[in-house]
């Protein structure tokens, strides 16, 4: 019933204001370990009308061998254009967040950067956020294709037009994404943007 009430409220907004609002946060986390057969993924599908809820969080319980997954929706005023963040700015923001949590910064990996950029580019082409690439690939396969022989690799993705600060805020608000960024056993990362689409890949080599 709350969703119905929210829709009525949104319908009362002036048309010009309603058109400037959009759901801009979709975040999902996947955790893959190198052992064969142990692939942890739990992604919540966007609701049919996520804009009906200014803020909504959907969590799925973790199955055996899986980590918790979540999708977050937020309603904010749409910017006139997508905020572009440089790779250096994005990396500094991510490592600054880790330092603020009392953790050591991670080293930028050229291989993980390629994997992250390739997936952000792919999501932009598909015009949707997903851990599954247009070719059916997942983060483990993409990391290996980029030349990263991992013991552990994890991936956060987000969709937001507001730049790296917004992507980090969304991930930090979700327990599964936050946990992935707080891991102490990862050493390297890649963080890439293509328009609204963000991909963060963290890992440790064999």
Short description:
The chain is 33% helix and 28% strand.
Describe the 3D structure.
Residues 1-27 form the signal peptide. Residues 93-192 form the SCP domain. This protein is α+β, with helices and mostly antiparallel strands and 206 residues long. The protein has one domain: Pathogenesis-related Protein p14a (3-Layer(aba) Sandwich). Helix content is 33%, strand content 28%. The chain has helices at 2-11, 15-18, 87-100, 110-126, 139-145, 164-173, 175-181, and strands at residues 21-23, 26-33, 39-42, 55-60, 69-77, 107-108, 150-159, 188-194, 197-205. A 6-stranded mixed β-sheet has the order 3-2-7-9-8-6, sandwiched between helices. A 3-stranded antiparallel β-sheet has the order 1-5-4, covered by helices on one side. The relative contact order is 0.20. Residues 1-26 and 34-70 have low confidence and may be disordered.
Q: Major β-sheet, in short? A: 6 strands, mixed
Residue share in helix: 25-40%
Count of DSSP E strands? 9
CATH topology: Pathogenesis-related Protein p14a
Strand content: 25-35%
Architecture, CATH level 2? Answer: 3-Layer(aba) Sandwich
What string gives the helices and strands in order?
A: HHEEEEEHEHHEHHEE
Q: What is the CATH domain class?
A: Alpha Beta
- Structural class computed from helices and strand pairing: alpha+beta
Principal-axis shape: globular
Spans of 5+ residues with little confidence (pLDDT < 50)? 1-26, 34-70
Protein name: SCP domain-containing protein
Domain SCP: 93-192
Signal peptide: 1-27
Keywords: Signal
């Amino acid at each position: 019933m709350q969703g119905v009430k929210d829709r009525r409220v949104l319908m009362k907004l002036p048309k010009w204001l309603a058109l400037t609002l959009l759901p801009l946060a979709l975040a999902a986390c996947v955790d893959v370990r190198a052992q064969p057969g142990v692939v942890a993924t739990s992604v919540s599908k966007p609701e049919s009308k996520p804009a009906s809820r200014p803020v909504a969080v959907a969590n799925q319980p973790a199955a055996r061998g899986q980590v918790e997954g979540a999708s977050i929706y937020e309603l904010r005023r749409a910017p006139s254009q997508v905020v572009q963040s440089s790779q250096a700015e994005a990396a500094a923001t991510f490592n600054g967040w880790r330092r603020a949590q009392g953790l050591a910064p991670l080293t930028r990996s050229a291989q993980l950067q390629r994997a992250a950029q390739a997936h952000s580019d792919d999501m932009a082409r598909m015009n949707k956020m997903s851990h599954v690439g247009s070719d059916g690939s997942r983060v483990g396969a993409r990391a290996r294709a980029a030349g990263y022989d991992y013991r552990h690799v994890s991936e956060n993705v987000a969709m937001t037009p507001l730049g790296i600060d917004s992507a980090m805020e969304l991930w930090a608000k979700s327990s599964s994404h936050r946990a992935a960024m707080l891991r102490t056993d990862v050493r390297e990362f890649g963080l890439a943007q293509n328009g609204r689409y963000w991909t963060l890949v963290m890992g440790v080599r064999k």
